Amino acid sequence: MQQAQQLFDQLYQELAWRQDDIFVYGRQITIPRLQAWYGDNQQAYTYSGLTLNALPWTSTLAQVKQAVETYSGCSFNSCLANLYRDGNDSVSWHSDDEAELGINPVIASVSLGAKRDFQLKHKEQNEKLSVPLNSGSLLLMAGETQHYWQHCIAKTKRVKSPRINLTFRQIVVP
Ligand SMILES: O=C(O)CCC(=O)C(=O)O
Ligand SMILES: [Fe+2]
Q1: Would you say residue 174 lies in a domain?
Q2: 101 lines ligand 1 (CB under 6 A)
Q3: Does residue 145 have its Cβ closer than 6 Å to ligand 1?
Q4: How many other CB atoms are there within 10 angstroms of residue 39's CB atom?
Q5: Structure confidence by residue, pLDDT tens digits, 10-53
Q6: Which UniProt keywords apply (predicted)?
């Protein structure tokens, strides 16, 4: 998809990618991907002892946000961007259940670049799903998804090229 490739190139250049460390059980861990946090009003977003202050929307991000809002019928005031440089980069099992996202958050996830598998596992039942996220795809998580399911992007030796993921969110607790 040509438009997706163009978007990938723009965001790769334009976003303020950073390599951060987080603290998990008192241990310092380098996050295995690059990230950037954008949103309205310099909102702060905290997880695992790391606080990111939102940067103002770039014009490209603002355009994607508009398209995602039109498509989903939901509005978003922030976006966590992830850059997986290759198959070595990953995000481990988690739910997007931070208090600032509210009870049943809608999270809109745009994927660009390398195809990666988005895995889901139920917290109580022995149920697992794998959704291939192609370049240009939009995945919506809504309702009680975060209560019952965890998700991850596992490391893989097969992927040698980068992927950008944009997760649009609505921060409700300041
Ligand atoms: O890269 C993805 O598709 C998932 C990212 C994610 O789960 C997150 O940023 O919370
Ligand atoms: Fe997530």
Answers
A1: no
A2: no
A3: no
A4: 25
A5: 999 999 999 999 888 889 999 999 999 999 988 888 766 778 88
A6: Dioxygenase, DNA damage, DNA repair, Iron, Magnesium, Metal-binding, Oxidoreductase
Closest ligand 1 atom to Cα of 163: 1
| Distance from the alpha carbon of residue 43 to the mean position of ligand 1, in angstroms | 19
Give per-residue pLDDT as tens, 142-164: 999 999 999 999 999 999 999 99
- The tally of domains found in the chain comes to 1
What 3-state class would DSSP assign to 61?
Answer: helix
Answer with the residue of higher pLDDT: 112 or 22: 112
- Residue 66's CATH number: 2.60.120.590
In a domain, 94, yes or no: yes
Task: Please name the amino acid found at residue 145.
Answer: T
For helices 2-14 and 59-72, give the axis angle rounded to 10 degrees: 130
Looking at the domain assignment, is residue 71 inside a domain? yes
- Ligand 1 atom closest to residue 118's alpha carbon, by position in its atom list: 3
Cβ of 135 less than 6 Å from ligand 1 = no
49 belongs to a structural domain: yes
CB atoms within 10 A of CB 36: 22
Domain span including residue 54: 2-169
